[in-house]
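Morning run. Coffee first, then this:
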Amino acid sequence: MQTISSSMLVPSRLVFLMWGIFFLDQLYPIDLAMFGILPRTIRGLIGIVTAPLLHGSVAHLVSNTMPVLIFGTILYMFYRRVANRVFLQCYFFTGILVWLLARTSIHIGASGLIYGLAFFLIFFGLFQRDFKSLLISIIMLIAYGGIFYGVLPTQSYVSWESHLLGGVVGFFNALNSGTKRLPV
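And here it is:
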């Protein structure tokens, strides 16, 4: 198990980038949302890399900040051997799937990554079946069990596709990691 400060390194760097880019977006008259994921377009491919860094409002940014920090820190603290792979796959594979499958609209924000990390943390314990992982799964379900409702298309301005596809990526990461019985 790593220390909290070293476990926070990757998630806090991402959050720092998210906030920095948001402030740049506010300072200059450029709408950075144009660098989000626009499914099945050449221009939208850049969004696979940039979309998690872009946010439409302070509320959107704040609502993504804490889960990235919390879920990312838990991932790096307790599952350091698979953490980089899981984090990167939740970041990039979710973006790729959104680009391939989502409705034609610009998709921005880190919620796909958040759902990927949350689903990994919830399901990994069920597949791994050791005490520590099961305890993390139970705590995640109690604290964030409502996250499952976010995969439903309830609001037209919310990328439920990012939520759903991030959850799928997180689930398959947990399944893959759990069946290999990797030391964590």
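DSSP finds eight helices and no strands in the chain. Good start to the day.
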